[in-house]
Amino acid sequence: MDQPSNYAVSQRPVPLWRDERVLRGAAQIVSALAVLGLLAWGLTNVLRAADQRGLGLSFGFLEQSAGFPISETPIAYDPSMSFARAFWVGILNTLKVIIVGVLLATGLGTAVGLARLSTNWLLSRIALVYIEAHRNIPLLVLLFIWYRGVLTNRLPDVTNSLRWPGPTYLSQRGIYMPWPSLTETGMPFAISIVLAIVLAIVAFRWLRRVRERTGRPTYFGGVAAAILILLPALGWLLSGGQPLLWDIPILSGFNFEGGARVTPEFTALLIGLVMYTAAFIAEVVRAGIQAVDRGQLEAARAIGLDAAQVLGLVILPQAMRVIIPPLISQYLNLTKNSSLAFFIGYPDLFSVGRIMINQAGRAVPVFAMIMAAYLVMTLVTSFVLNVYNRRIQLIER
Amino acid sequence: MDLSTHDQLPPAPPAFLAWVRQNLFRTWYDSLLTIVSCVVVYLALSGAIRWVFTTADWSPITQNMTLFLVGQYPRDELWRLGIAVGLVSFFLGLSWGLWSGVMRSFALTLIGFYLFLALLPGTSLAAGIRLFLGLNAGLVVLSYWLARRWPPPSNYLLAGWIVSAIVGFFLLRGHAALPALERVEINLWGGLIVTAILAIGGILISFPFGVLLALGRRSTLPVVSAFSTAFIELIRGVPLISILFLFSLIVPLFLPANMRFDRMLRALVGMIVFSAAYTAENVRGGLQAIPSGQYEAAYAIGLRNLQITLLIVLPQALRKVIPAIVGQFISLFKDTTLASGVAVLEILSIGRSVLQGNPEYIGLQAEVFVFVAAIFWIFSYSMSVSSRRIETQLGVGQS
């Protein structure tokens, strides 16, 4: 502060307490000290408490055997495996419910949002009732209604399972259904399916571009459909007509054996999350479509597009720009709300973390891991979707 | 459509029929949709009505109504709660009189709720409590009339709300030095009052912090802005339940051994921290909507930074974000249910403990949770109606 400010008219230096640079610097130092001081104070307290109770802050315990069972494991797991493995199972369970939930909620939400805009008065009212019913009830209460009120309460017990078409059974224990597994010769079939999907997409996009550029009919839809049917059929023949082995649930005693089981916990969480989030997505979709200028619709009709083309080629691409940003925050909400699994006993990241805190006695490190896992999931989701959003917005001009 | 009106009002039936054709049977698939919807609505409605009035057994709720409303609050001390409720009724009536459009739906909902509790037969509520609740419905109407007759200045009314919130909390809590108001342990509080305290306390106390964080995030001081941004994004990136656990399990570890708070207060702190981050983002939206000409004009007339913020920017920005704050309040109100995860006896955990403690209620889970859902629905729906009215009154989006 030795040199006077360049713009000062008088020769006297500005006093320290009026010099903006000093004040700004001081404010930052003070705030930094306050925040860091608070953190340091807390940390010394926790270290002192940790010393007294023998609760370390290290992550070494992750290698130890977890010693608790998990009711749903997408990967192999048993209590003798490590805490790290248990945590990973929790993360996978959370990802499972998020991915399925986002897909279903987007579909249902779009349907309800379109129904809300329908010219059919009754349909629009039904959509409104659905939206208002779900937006004004806490998700946790919805989850309890579904889990405790319906799925584990109103359904018959295992021996009196409701039988759906085919060997699929619905009871208090959840849904049991047949599940395919590949036979020894089934590999060509599996490969052919993956190949068919990839080729169909490539062919569809390429042929459509040719059509858009040259105006020649390229039958892109038909070609893609043909690839989707013919390639798997070829794979079916190559694998000797017997590519899949169906694992069928059979009632033995008081439980089913074989097949795949969808637990009531997962079902309740999925139903609750999907129906709740769909109500919000419906409002997002409705607002997005209403934001498209009416003239666009009239112009599209005037050049002779049919209803599906108006919606798909004119309205939705423009509505998407308005829809995507709030849709991102709905996806993030669904991600965070999946932690309510804890209340109904679905072993997601948060529930497994809670058990780990009790089991390992390491509250602080486990909690840091839980928070970090959610942060990574939300940050990655919002990053990916924001990139997509930017691409969509660029098409505009 | 009966024939007499048909004769008197010839244009009416064609208009009605035209409306039906236009809105229900425009095309063949529209007709199909209408018929299918009619069947669905009929099945859903008749099923729901039959369940609510005949199949369902509401005894877990009616027998424990007092528990659902006030938890284990000592029954001899309920008069204190009564005064607090009376204060709310009084100020709500005044607010309804002063800002009629905005408050109407919520005030009417509360009157309906009082009357429902007062008149519902077969509940565990004592006759005195029923009378009191009925009188409260009258009090709302009376103070509405008072405010229409002699409108109070709105600043006084706001101050009255804040003072009555503090007085109400003090009444409920009591103080060791006062023999008439002995201390009531917070872990005895429960039910709807705890839900209300968590929601109202959460939004009110978080508000100033949220404003500071928003100003901090937009600050030109890099350190302040970085800390504010980090805090906001950290809180918004994790679920509320993890924040509640953080404050009920982890933060006590970071405090010295002699600093211990009650469960409900820890949950309240968690709600405040959570809500502050979201308030900050709402307020930031309002701040960004202030045109830079406002700042330049304020500099030009020689105001200092603090004066510009307090006198020019915040009054305009906060006005713009009122609807967003109301929306946030509604979701915070719903989010109070998560406090049941950290053993706070708000209304949902009362429901769960009623089911758990009484074997005779086995199989009545749906009734209890539907009741809790209904409570949340009527209050948050009426608040969302209010918030839409605020939007039209403030002319948000029309500028």
Question: What can you see in these coordinates?
Answer:
- The complex is a heterodimer of chains A (397) and B (399).
- Chain A has helices spanning 20-53, 83-116, 121-135, 139-151, 187-214, 220-238, 264-290, 294-302, 307-337, 341-344, 349-360, 363-395; strands at residues 162-164, 168-171, 174-177, 179-182, 244-247, 250-252, 255-257, 260-262.
- With 397 residues, chain A is α+β, with helices and mostly antiparallel strands.
- Among the domains of chain A are: 19-53; 83-137 and 265-395, MetI-like fold.
- In chain A, strand 2 and strand 3 (174-177) form a beta hairpin.
- Chain B is globular, with a radius of gyration of 25 Å.
- In chain B, helix 10 (192-217) runs antiparallel to helix 11 (222-236) and helix 16 (347-357) packs antiparallel against helix 17.
- Chain B has 399 residues and is mainly α.
- The interface between A and B is large, with 56 and 57 residues.
Low-confidence stretches of chain A: none
Distance from N terminus to C terminus of chain A (CA atoms, Å) equals 51 Å
Question: What oligomeric state is this?
Answer: heterodimer
The name of the CATH topology of the largest domain in chain B is: MetI-like fold
Shape of chain A: globular
**Helical fraction of chain A:** 55-70%
- Under CATH at level 1, the class of the domain at 83-137 and 265-395 in chain A stands as Mainly Alpha
Q: Tell me what the CATH architecture of the largest domain in chain B is.
A: Orthogonal Bundle
Mean pLDDT across the residues of chain B is: 87
Number of helices of chain B: 17
Beta percentage of chain B is: under 5%
Based on CA inertia axes, which overall geometry of chain B fits? globular
Look at the structure and name the CATH superfamily of the domain at 83-137 and 265-395 in chain A. Answer: MetI-like
Number of strands of chain B: 0
